[in-house]
Give the backbone structure.
Amino acid sequence: MDINELVTRFENFSQTVIAPQFEQHTSLYSKGGWEGWAQVEAAKYFMNQSILVDRELNVDGKRIDLLINNEWYVELKCQSIDNSQNLIPGVIKDIIKLQRIDQFHNPKAVIFWTLGDIGDVKGNIQAILNKTYNSIELHLNGGWATLHVYALS
């Protein structure tokens, strides 16, 4: 699976699984966040398409959110009402964590959702890490969120 297919699958997941939850004003807005829920739902979504997924994998002493298709190490982050200030620092921690993993030279990606306009995400990440990444930002239907994908390898 290449980065384009990974992005397309996460875009479809966002539109078909996550978006309806936001439209129903469910607990995704609640304190405590929705990253755990997104991990489980992403795993189910990929497995329903006959794609292997492991969750909460221990790699080189670090916990990785998802291993997709025995190929992609993926970290997820989800902006919620109580983590807006910590979202970008959390994304940066995940980028650094994945960069330190060299197991089998698997490709790595950090995938996250932002709600509304939180400024220049790409510029902030580049400024802090002093590095440019292959990244994609997709504004999802209705403008309810932006899907960000950072390919690290």
Notes: The longest strand covers residues 53-59.
